[in-house]
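F.,

This is the one I mentioned.
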């Protein structure tokens, strides 16, 4: 296997290592994101361990074994100027509440190469890894605030879909199932900054952990927002597992449909309402 792609980051990239004041494009962070999407696309624990490695007691077939990763991730050709001043992680807020942190400025670029080592992957596993990489580029992100439009990666080689129909068919061909995907603000002429600001403006004090996650106990947000670029400009992409939940009004809705309803009806909903109704492209 030898997969490689030039990648652009559309929004501020808050990705750091040991030095909190120095942004980096970190291979372990990328590997972790791709591994997450490998599972989201239906990869089993045994397949995950076979590809990415793992310790004992993980998986079933290889539960007694420690396996090394059979993939090498390599980052090169980094063109990533640091943002100055530090950009806010919560751009819908002001001053210190906006929590500015060290980051690379929007427009950062790098080359990512992923290739197999030790021995070639079986064709089925190789295809699953490539699908996870492609879905990460289209739905995923990198670094801090990744679920709220931070570090939004996007293909820099012109290969990304240009319209909603193309994005839908591409995701389906990559094996994305049981996920809701919607485009928000398409054709509204909003800038990347406007969209990034809106994506961070969710529910203050958020009691909806099944929709937007929670801090205590820690739960990653099931609903994810990302700035993407189509032929007619920038818009937000929203996605979440396609699962119905019991809502506060007694109705059952999918996670993403309830997220839309809550954001449209929250206090000070002007940013979300300015983007219009959501265009659901999946399922």
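My design for it:
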């Amino acid at each position: 296997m030898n997969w490689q792609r030039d990648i652009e980051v559309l929004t501020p990239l808050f990705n750091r290592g040991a030095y909190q004041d120095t942004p980096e494009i970190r291979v372990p962070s990328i590997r972790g994101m791709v591994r997450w999407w490998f599972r989201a696309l239906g990869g089993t624990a045994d397949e995950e361990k076979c590809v990415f490695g793992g310790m004992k007691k993980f998986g079933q077939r290889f539960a007694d074994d420690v396996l090394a990763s059979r993939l090498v991730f390599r980052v090169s050709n980094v063109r990533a100027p640091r943002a100055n001043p530090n950009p806010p992680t919560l751009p819908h807020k002001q001053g210190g509440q906006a929590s500015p942190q060290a980051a690379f400025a929007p427009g950062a670029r790098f080359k990512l190469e992923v290739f197999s080592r030790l021995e070639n992957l079986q064709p089925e596993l190789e295809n699953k890894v490539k699908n996870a990489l492609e879905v990460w580029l289209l739905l995923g992100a990198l670094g801090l605030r990744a679920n709220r439009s931070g570090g939004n990666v996007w293909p820099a080689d012109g290969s990304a879909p240009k319209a909603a129909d193309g994005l839908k068919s591409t995701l389906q061909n990559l094996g994305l199932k049981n996920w809701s995907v919607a485009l928000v603000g398409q054709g509204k002429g909003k800038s990347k900054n406007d969209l990034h600001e809106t994506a961070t403006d969710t529910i203050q004090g958020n009691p909806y952990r099944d929709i937007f996650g929670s801090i205590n106990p820690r739960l990653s947000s099931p609903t994810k927002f990302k700035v993407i670029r189509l032929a007619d400009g920038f818009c937000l992409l929203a996605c979440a597992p396609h699962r119905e939940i019991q809502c506060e009004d007694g109705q059952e809705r999918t996670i993403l449909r309830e997220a839309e309803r809550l954001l449209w009806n929250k206090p000070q909903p002007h940013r979300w309402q300015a983007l219009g109704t959501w265009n659901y492209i999946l399922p």
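The longest strand covers residues 71-79.

Talk soon.
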